[in-house]
Amino acid sequence: MDRDRVETVGLRWLRWLRRLVIAAFLLITVFPFYYMLVLSVRPIERLLLDPGALVVGLGELTVSTYAEVLKATEDGGQGFLAFIGNSGLVAVAATLLTLVVAIPGAYAVSRLRFFGRRQVDFLFLAVYLFPSIVIAIPLFVVFTRAGLRGSLVGLVLVYISQTLPVSVYMLKNYFETIPVSLEESAAIDGAGRLGIIRRISLPLAAPSIMAVALYDFMIAWNEFLFALLFLVDKPHRWTVSLGLAQLADGVEVPKTVLMAGSVVLTLPIVLLFFATERLLTEGLTTGAEKA
Fold first, then answer.
1. Distance of alpha carbon 114 from the chain centroid
2. DSSP state of 237
3. N or C: which end of the chain has fewer CB within 10 A?
């Protein structure tokens, strides 16, 4: 009986310890974003008087910082609305094109038998593990000679070269978890290879595809090095990360405006993550039912 009580008390302490650890990690994760949000809605004069305030009174709240960030440069703003459009266009295009190539490529590597199949995994990982700075100069030279430097199309192609190897690797590992017997049964029923992929493999791989799409979108949205290298002399084609770097380097730009720009950069990714989290759960459930 005493042993049961000890185990019960131990489990209770473990539950509380787990809650404390989760709360601590949540605080560490959320607090920087919360403080950034607080700074972005405070007038600069109030911030200078009390920089450590964590609660903003209703009388202090202002959205003038966001208006300045989003307003066009011709109107005296920072032009982030155009930057958001550029980043969204590049990120969506890079994500879709990556998936169009990665899905059939990953399926082929996981299902088809060909010479050098085992070495493909290593090659994909080797390409991904190369530091970006190593391939930045060769890509810059090639795209300059091709006349694509300074264009959003060239930047999309550069991002695809970054996201495609890891996307194929991730999707290939997921396709390998799908039982081959399901595809063999469909083949016996008369389905062709494309029909098997469309009706069997893709529905079951939906969770992995959404996870890879989110990963690719985040890379393209937040990327800075290649955007700076290819678009530095084209301010009207800058992405959000370049616009934020410009705010950070500007001495005359108030830090409240800088924080507003940081929120504009971060918020779409946060919202997309929470929206995709629900879709991932639904996709997992659907895949389990079909399996």
1. 33
2. G
3. N
